[in-house]
């Protein structure tokens, strides 16, 4: 058994086959059951296949391959996301407002700044952008959740998957800068036959939502773990939100 995986996961092996074994936070965890159902519905070309779910434990196919140090080229990532977004809906919608409220409530009260409260109230009053196209979303695309397998690029860790706007997915990909995101959006627009400007505007509408979502998640993870890296990441996102607020 290899306990080197994060997020409550480990590897199990009988000497010939390896599986990823994951434990739910609660045996009645609806999101955990949803993750299993999502993996059951998705093809092997996109995601690892689940083997069984018993008493809060889930066994998933282990994907052999390389975890990239940087994101793949824009066109390769766009092709993967387009393939996912063309799949049939998973059956449940992603809604951000309940998550934003939960992160506020579960965070350290001393970290609840006027910027956080103001941004949250503004978004709540504005409401989530109407979707451009509804599709199944992964919602946690970054280098650590991509695998270059012998059969091609695949996504792992589907904990946050659900149905939502394709532009929300593109706004949520962990990237270093605007130029990198614009390249992904342009590549995606070409493959999906969407006007690039239209798609980019929709991505920009989602960006403050994603920024607050990420900052809140980092705040809660720091509260749960005491790991200071999460505070550093949260402060970085708060700085970005503060700068963008001044620009508007």
Automatic annotation (TrEMBL):
GO molecular function, one term: ATP binding
Gene3D superfamilies: 3.90.1200.10
Catalytic activity: thiamine + ATP = thiamine phosphate + ADP + H(+)
Enzyme class, UniProt record, top EC level: transferase
EC number(s) given by UniProt: 2.7.1.89
Any one Pfam family match given in the protein's UniProt record, by short name: APH
Keywords of the record: ATP-binding, Kinase, Nucleotide-binding, Transferase
Keyword Chaperone: no
Keyword Transferase: yes
Coiled-coil portions: none
This protein's pathway: Cofactor biosynthesis; thiamine diphosphate biosynthesis; thiamine phosphate from thiamine: step 1/1
GO biological process terms, semicolon-separated: thiamine diphosphate biosynthetic process; thiamine metabolic process
Boundaries of every Aminoglycoside phosphotransferase domain copy: 11-203
Family that this chain belongs to: Belongs to the thiamine kinase family.
Function: Catalyzes the phosphorylation of thiamine to thiamine phosphate.
Identification of the protein by name: Thiamine kinase
Species in which this protein is naturally found: Phytobacter massiliensis
Gene coding for it: thiK
């Amino acid at each position: 058994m290899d306990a080197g995986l994060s997020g409550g996961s480990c590897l199990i092996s009988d000497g010939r086959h390896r599986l990823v074994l994951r434990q739910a936070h609660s045996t009645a965890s609806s999101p955990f059951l949803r993750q299993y159902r999502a993996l059951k519905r998705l093809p092997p070309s996109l995601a690892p296949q689940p083997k069984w779910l018993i008493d809060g434990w889930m066994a998933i196919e282990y994907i052999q391959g390389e975890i990239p140090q940087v994101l793949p080229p824009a066109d390769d990532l766009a092709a993967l996301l387009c393939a996912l977004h063309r799949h049939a809906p998973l059956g449940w919608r992603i809604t951000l407002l309940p998550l934003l409220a939960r992160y506020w409530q579960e965070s350290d009260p001393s970290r609840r700044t006027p910027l956080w409260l103001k941004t949250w109230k503004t978004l709540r009053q504005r409401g989530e952008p109407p979707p451009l196209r509804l599709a199944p979303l992964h919602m946690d695309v970054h280098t650590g959740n991509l695998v270059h397998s012998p059969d091609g690029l695949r996504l792992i860790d589907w904990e946050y998957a659900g149905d939502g706007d394709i532009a929300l997915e593109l706004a949520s990909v962990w990237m270093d800068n605007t130029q990198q995101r614009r390249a992904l959006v342009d590549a995606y627009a070409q493959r999906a036959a969407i006007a690039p400007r239209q798609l980019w505007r929709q991505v920009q509408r989602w960006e403050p939502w994603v920024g607050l979502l990420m900052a809140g998640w980092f705040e809660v993870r720091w509260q749960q773990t005491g790991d200071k890296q999460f505070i550093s990441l949260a402060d970085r996102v708060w700085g970005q939100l503060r700068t963008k607020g001044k620009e508007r």
